[in-house]
Amino acid sequence: MARVRMGAQALAWLLTRHLPLEVILHFTTRDRNLMGIQADLLGAHAAGLRDILCLTGDPPSGTDYPNVTAVYDVDSIGLIRIVAQLNRGTDLAGNPVGGRTAFAIGCALNPTADDLELEVDRFARKVAAGAQYAMTQPFYDWAVWERFVARAGRPPVPVLMGILPLQSLRHAEFLHHEVPGISVPAALRERLARAGAGAQAEGVAQARELFRECRRRRDTFAGAYLMPSFGRYENCLEVLKDG
Length: 243
Known about the structure:
six-stranded parallel sheet
């Protein structure tokens, strides 16, 4: 969200040092030029990181740093090409880098995109560039996914469904109206409104429904990933109960 936090690469390395986890590094092209991108990727590989989610990155305009310059030498598709090239043992200019990297290359997928034709085209280009798996934006209506599959066909790479448990009606309204790429159906917002003080539990129940349905759709989903909001990690554990 174009906010100042600890760098994702340093945090990913720290996690692997202290926990037996396989970490997916979210890597954006916003903050680095082409040389910096490749240098940081080589550093990530040397540090033992192997999974890269290739993202363009949100622009800094409209944040606490509106005057910061975004680089964007390449977008996410260009970044995928760079990582795939490193996996073949050369940089983008064709120079050898001393060996092949072994990154698993991920990409983002937004089935709720307003311009579905563009999203389908970009997804196809990401796969052609070398993406090996995809992670979706959170969505709350299976009709959205079915519309995407009807247009794009069965995904040619494994897809992980993004699930973000809703905390309240206010949370749902904010995501729906203020966060690009997320749409919360009116029926679900009404469901949260009816729940009143129990909206958080209702949001967890709805997320559990999504997770169960995702597990049934083995033909298009390889799994799911959960996104805690407001630091409420316990909600994600609740989603997994009886899943």
